[in-house]
Amino acid sequence: MVLNRRLEYGFNGYQVPAMPRAARSARRRGSPNKKVEDNNMCAFDLLATVAGKLLVGKDSSPSSSNLSTKQDQCAITVGNIKEEFQAPQKQLELQPYDQGSGDMICLGPKLVPDYHNPVNSFKEANKDALGCADTIVNSDGSGGLASEKLGKDEMRYFAEKVTLGSVEHGKPSNYNSEDETKRKNVVELLNSGNAPHGTGANMYSAIGDQVVWDAKPLVQISSYSNAKMSFKETEEPGPRNLFSQVRDNVALDSKDDDENSSGCTHRSTTKNSFKPAPCMGDRRIRKVLASKYWKVATKWKEKLFSRNDVDLKADGFDKKSFYKRQRSQRNFPFKKRKFFDLNCESNSDGEISGDSCADREMSSVAGQHSPYQSANPHVRVRIESFRVPELFIEIPETATVGSLKRTVMEAVTAILGGELRVGVVLQGKKVGDDSKTLAQTGICHGNNQVDALGFTLEPNSSQDLRSATPRSSPSLVRRNTSYPHSRYPPARTEAREGIFDEPQAVNNLGNSAESDRGSATSPTDLSNKGLADSKALVPVSALNRETLAVVPVRRKSKHSEIAQRRIRRPFSVAEVEALVQAVEKLGTGRWRDVKLRAFDSVKHRTYVDLKDKWKTLVHTARISPQQRRGEPVPQELLDRVLTAHAYWSQQQAKQQLKHHHRRHHHHHHQPETRLLL
DNA sequence: GTTAGGG
DNA sequence: CCCTAAC
After folding, report:
1. Global pTM?
2. Alpha carbon A322 to its chain's center
3. 3-state secondary structure A218-249
4. Cα A667 from chain centroid?
5. CA torsion, points A644, A649, A652, A658, in degrees to nearest 10?
6. What is the pLDDT of residues A584-608, one digit of tens each?
7. The predicted structure's pLDDT at residue A633
8. Which residues of chain A have pLDDT under 50?
9. Contact residues for A482 (Cβ-Cβ < 8 A; gap 6+)
10. Which CDD domains match (predicted)?
11. Which nucleotide is nearest to A587 (CA to C1')?
């Protein structure tokens, strides 16, 4: 069956060169203090890096909780890196596939009834989006999920949260033999080790992204976009990355509506024959995005670039060095991809449409000359890094790296997905006055210092802070108070829940040891000091959450107390090990003690969980290996489970007998005793 | 709050 | 994992 084969592709994993060796090794040896310079780094890696940073210098004893202070804040920069560009890239082979296959990665809400067969789950969950499809393919046709760095367990974990599929021009793509051929070619390419970055990796990044947003894509896209804004543009945007597309559309600015951008410069195209028709540009992208996604992009764009909000203007950008850089990059034979070109051409910058693309590699802020600019001066802003609000995590030694990753990811997700404030930093100093105009502040035309402008994302902890934000002042993003749904409580979303209830992964906001689902603690106070001068901060989250939720998000009803099922977190082997060991020692009737002994610091494992797990372990141990699912538990452990279970069952039986005897004893002898007394 | 089991 | 009766 085709499906099965694809399953293999997806889950047995072809090594997907998600990033060049140079970048990879650079990351490996990256010190915590070193900025992570890797624009290919997906969220997953990113967050893992955060974890590494956070854990540095911590007491690693399992029980001690980790405290985090300001100095633990991590600045993560995902910028374009030179090595990236230097790396030889052959993308030529990929072009036809890119062009021919789906144009959009279909991200859907989590709908995975079958824990143990994620592929089927994919299929099931994507049934609507994909129609008849047993089509679970990358949009580049490579099929399946890139599994680099993802263990089986993690893979499954993500699989549960993400639904992916390939959609061709907004419609489900039917996987046919031609696709199969393409896919094979891509796989071959991947296996050859010469695949360009991005090949088959779409899913990978999509997965990362998706996970970050906890499988709430359409809500999160907005947030994501904001976050993504903080990543410097990559030189080679994932050709099929929806987010990239959204972002790129945004980057195209808001001119497309009022100006029939004459920008379709028919520049000579020597790149490759696969290039799409030149003039499609923006329009094509729009089409590609499919209506509702486009809507998302547009709305978001409106939010960010609306003239009402702010005049982003100036072009104080150093064009010379800019073009120099750009030129130097042309040395790379296959640098430009189709997708890339699209943007170039859609840019209405008539004179140098090619170079106009180069704003992708600009630094934190840059403006650019455009024909329409004089009429409506804008500042084009690019954020290259953001600061992850402090957080601390607590995780037992027995936890796996994978669980660490998840933990950190969830912690960060909680923050990113939650209330975030945007801080503006200029010349290294936080801009504290919202009332000034950009020009007054220095964010303008004349300021071409690359590092002049910066942004930070910070926990938008309380209503107080929010209300402290001057509403009337210009801001990059402003809340749309007229939004129809504004009557809904903005903050609490499902995504948020189930994350903040992971006490194991918490931020510094004081919401730590909540182990109950639904008890999402909203960030409170604290962090205020650090943000004392944060008048410039602007609440972003609720806005995007609300305005961009094309797909209706199930909101918590009136009392916001609709309990949500906790996220499923399969026990790792290490956890099983710990559990077995504890039960061997304590028996099967003292789950609280087991919890305290082996999972004390793991807040999301309740003693009930442990009890349940033991139950399933016993069951697992009794069935044949073929019937077992999930991450295989070593037989040795299962044997111990059976042994321990037998032993303690017997003990329990004995105890009960004793009790019975005692009771009988009492019945018979108590009268006597009384008599004696 | 814990245990023990069914769902 | 959830739900809950029964401690």
Report:
1. 0.28
2. 31
3. HHHHHHHHHHHHCCCCCCCCCCCCHHHHHHHH
4. 65
5. -120
6. 999 999 999 999 999 999 989 999 9
7. 94
8. 1-175, 179, 183, 186, 190, 195-375, 461-559, 669-677
9. none
10. SANT_TRF
11. B3
Q: A411 exposed, middle or buried (CB, 10 Å; 0-12, 13-18, 19+)?
A: buried
Q: Give whole-number Cα distances, A79 to A47, A226, A335, in Å.
A: 15, 15, 17
How many CB atoms sit inside 10 A of residue A677's CB? 5
Strand C bases contacted by the protein (CB, 7 Å): 1-4
Rounded alpha-carbon distances, angstroms, from residue A592 to A328, A577, A582, A583 = 64, 17, 11, 11
Neighbouring CB atoms inside 10 A of A451's CB total: 13
- Give the nucleotide nearest to A566 (CA→C1'): C1
Whether A590 sits with its Cβ under 7 A from any strand B atom: the answer reads yes
CA distance A645 to A491: 46
**Residue A654: CB atoms within 10 Å:** 10
CA-to-C1' span, A595 to B3 (A) = 13
Q: Output Rg (C-alpha) for chain A, integer angstroms.
A: 28
pLDDT computed for residue A583 by the predictor = 95
CA distances A602 to A49, A128, A578, Å, are: 21, 38, 12
pLDDT of residue A655: 74
pLDDT on residue A305: 25
CA of A435 to C1' of B5 (A): 63
Strand C contacts in A 591-610 (CB under 7 A): 604, 608-609
Closest residue, CA to C1' of C3: A608
- Is residue A320 within 8 A of residue A283, CB to CB? The reply is no
Give the model's pLDDT for residue A560.
52
Q: What is the pLDDT of residue A650?
A: 86
Residue A131 Rama label (left phi>0; alpha psi -120 to 50; beta): left
How much is the pLDDT for A456?
60
- Asked if the Cβ of residue A115 lies within 7 A of any atom of strand B, the reply is no
CA dist A329 → A95, A322, A354, A601 (Å):
19, 11, 12, 50
Which one-letter amino acid corresponds to residue A159? A
Q: DSSP string spanning A257-307?
A: HHS--TT-------S-TTPPPGGGHHHHHHHHHHHHHHHHHHHHHHHHH-T
The pLDDT, as a whole number, for residue A642 is 94
Residue A585 CA to nucleotide B4 C1', Å? 20
Strand pairing class (A505-507; A166-168):
unpaired
Six-digit token string for A546: 């609300």
**What are chain A's domains?**
401-444+451-459 (no CATH), 573-662 (1.10.246.220)
**A590 CA to C7 C1' distance (Å):** 14
Q: Which run of H or E residues covers position A321?
A: helix A319-329
Asked whether A297 and A256 are in contact (CB, 8 A), the reply is no
